[in-house]
Amino acid sequence: MLALRTVLKARLARGLTSVIDATSTHAAHRRALLDLARDHSMPTVALVLPTPLPLCLERNARRPGNRKVPDAVVLRQHADVSAALSGLSGEGFDRVLFADSQDHTDHADGGTQGRVTGG
């Protein structure tokens, strides 16, 4: 997280748009990133990709051996993200957007599809 914060601070200081591609299951981690953006007067958007648990487990199973995580980790992260969704709009993001397709990303081919909705 320290390396991420260091790079993010440098980018924000230059006024560069920055995207953090992370699960961010804990509000405290999201808060730290939000605070950095606010310190640099940059807008913030949470993009939520609601993915059904079976699809998460399937994708994890297809990962190469060194990138695979235990199913218990996937289960915990899915539960943490699901629990956080109802309060996400109150965390201080300028906008919270939700992808409306469970097939929004396929890491096998790097493609994206589906629509994004939200305010």
TrEMBL record:
Gene3D superfamilies: P-loop containing nucleotide triphosphate hydrolases. It comes from the Bacteria. Pfam families: AAA_33. This is AAA domain-containing protein.
